[in-house]
Amino acid sequence: MVCDFGSIFFTSFAIVIFAVYCLLKRANDLFYTSKFSSKEYNIPPGDMSLPFIGNMFTFFTTFKYGDPESFISYFTSRYGQGGMYKAFMFGTPSIIVTKPQVCKKILMDDDNFELGWPKSVLNLIGKKALHGITSQEHKRLRRITTSPIKGKHALSLYLGLIEEVVKSSFEKWNAIEEKPIEFLSEMKKSTFEVIIRIMIGSEIDPQWLDMVEKVYTIYLKGFLALPINLPGFAYHRAFKARENLVKIFQSVIDERKVMNMKDESRSKGNMVDLIMAIEDDEGRRLNDEEIIDLLIVYVFAGHETTAHTAAWAIMYLEQHPEFLQKAKEEQEEIVKRRHPDSDKKLSYDEIRQMKYLTKVIDETLRCSNVTLAIYRNAKRTINMNGYTIPKGWKVLTWIRQVNLDPNNHVNSKEFNPSRWDTFSAFLPFGAGPRLCPGAELAKLEVSVFLHYFLLNYRLERLNPKTSVTYLPIPSPTDNCLARLKRISSSCQ
Ligand code: HEM
């Protein structure tokens, strides 16, 4: 009897909770969509979930603990293959877009869409970087800051430096053969060293580098944390880390000012010196705050993504011996073609000859791109692809889904570099005025990592079945616990 009463009570309680949940969901949806009920509008299907929280709880939990694809496949399987879905993300009604052509159109369209990073992210990035400024200022800053990292001349300058870091990293990882390494974490340290040396200069104290890398790790964790700025929370720690980074880069700038006063004509081959010297049409130079925010963004954007790509490319090649062999043969061929008297260093032209390796890198970017989505805000109500995007709504161009959608790629979950023999839909570096300015540099860096790996080493994973995170967040994975083994007696 007691048991019956208990189960009736709990069943009724569950029904009431479920009814309230459905009611709140419906209310949230109606609140935002009812004004678009006339025939001229067509809000995409989807799920805006509960008021205030929206889909954020599912978003964070699936990304942190589950299969990240499940968040988006919930929309695609439930609401059809239309490629546009309403949702409620980061406190704002949103449209998720997964169709490549529509994503591209949105990213290219500066008139109707503006940058839409959540406020919590913008606060962490900084007001004066490429993200918190007007589109006019953005154009100017991009002009100033992207030429030192694009094109044959600029990239050839960094090739030696990248080679040095890559070779010494592999040697270091191989030397501690008896102790496994967290391959992904180690890779991040190496790409961090590359970007810092490009930004600040080649002469870097290893202890200083280690300290700054640790600060960055804390800073990066804030980007995918719940935006709670209270002590004890990752987001708060990220803010503190940012304050530290400002102090660190300020002291670099102060040091350069003193050096410039002593010798104005000294050689200026790194980003910080170049940015400090550049003047706009009215002769104005960037102030310290602008330079620091830019440095923070470039280092932030320029190492984690590259590390994931290099580490994943190596993991994929190890999983597919036939592709590894093909890539290795290409590298051996390139080395064989060198003049016997050459200095045995990689040249920019040799990198351009690595046609198969380029396909391996593109396929890696497709399969494991760390950039999930690119955020925009609709400046005005606009109809696209048969659906309405209302003014002020957030638009999330879900490029990870574009890259993995079976409608865009045959056997989309399979790693297969040969699919790049013909063109495929692909947006790993975004598109339009905000297209990643570091794309060429990133590909160059990954090529150098792969070149030396293929010719000299093999990676032996200790837990090959354990998943490896591709997000900069703490997750229940082992970050690719592995041993690096040398396969040739003398390194090429
Ligand atoms: C595999 C490596 C990389 C990937 C997948 C990647 C991806 C992206 C994507 C998708 C965007 C567009 C964001 C948007 O439209 O809002 C972007 C922007 C950006 N990336 Fe990269 N990136 C990589 C490497 C790099 C490197 C090496 C650097 C620096 C040297 C860099 C610097 C930047 C900067 C500064 C922006 C902002 C551009 C702007 O707002 O105008 N990235 N990146």
UniProtKB/TrEMBL annotation:
One of its GO terms (cellular component) is endoplasmic reticulum. PROSITE patterns: CYTOCHROME_P450. Its cofactor is heme. Gene3D superfamilies: Cytochrome P450. It is found in: Membrane. Coiled coil: none annotated. The chain crosses the membrane at residues 6-24. Heme binds at residue 436. One of its GO terms (molecular function) is ent-kaurenoic acid monooxygenase activity. Keywords: Heme, Iron, Membrane, Metal-binding, Monooxygenase, Oxidoreductase, Transmembrane, Transmembrane helix. Pfam families: p450. InterPro entries: Cyt_P450, Cyt_P450_CS, Cyt_P450_E_grp-I, Cyt_P450_sf. GO terms for biological process: brassinosteroid biosynthetic process; brassinosteroid homeostasis; sterol metabolic process. It is a single-pass membrane protein. PANTHER family: CYTOCHROME P450 26, ENT-KAURENOIC ACID OXIDASE. Belongs to the cytochrome P450 family. This is Uncharacterized protein.
